[in-house]
Amino acid sequence: MTTEHPDGARPAPETAPQTTDGASAPGEPTLAEDLLLLLFQPGSGTIAGEGTLSYVLAGAVLADLSLGEHVQTSPGRTGSLLVGAVRDRPPADPLMRTSWEYVEDKPRGVQTVLAATGPSLRQPLLDRLVDRGDLRRRTRKTLGLFTSSALEEGDSGRRAKVLGEVRAVLVDRVEPTPRTAALAALLYGSGTMPQLDRDIPWTSPVIARAEELKDGSWGAEASAKAVTRTITAVIVNSVVAAAAALPR
Asked: Which of 6, 44, 187, 227 registers the highest number of CB atoms within 10 A of its CB?
């Protein structure tokens, strides 16, 4: 149901605290932040799956919009699923708001949204993780002359916490919350899970469980989120298709 507002005005989104780059809101971490944090490799200081990262992060933002009921779907002319904004539910988060605005005027195909909104996400999301203390930047000199910046895991303990929640769902088959189910499905869809083998074993049962999540089989707790489950499954499978089509 659409809520009427005086003079046709749209409700203003909640203001969110800004970080030093003006793009972040260190409150509750977004799905994209937690996904990027999981993709960070503490041993090397690198991000797994850089070649397909923009699609994966855009998928996480779109899934978050779906979980928050900020977007809805409609059938396209060729039977594909289009994603459009729920006009009276703009998200407060600035990065999510950008993706929401992209589908505000007209519904668009998921692949189109991923390609258009993904390339600008990596840096502001990394800045958020640093601002939260989940990651930190260390400056170092090479040959005593050249200065470079490297990423290290921070002291917040969040990566271990989130990784533990995803592992419990994939390895121990704990029934997930909708958010953890989406996060695990996106992690699997990114194609990078083999690089997490020390933390989440890359075994046939784990792959089978991840396939279930990818296809929207989340369990009884998520039964009330049937529409969200369907949208997220479409998003994750679109990420998989986009990642498979790109050179690695």
From this structure: 187
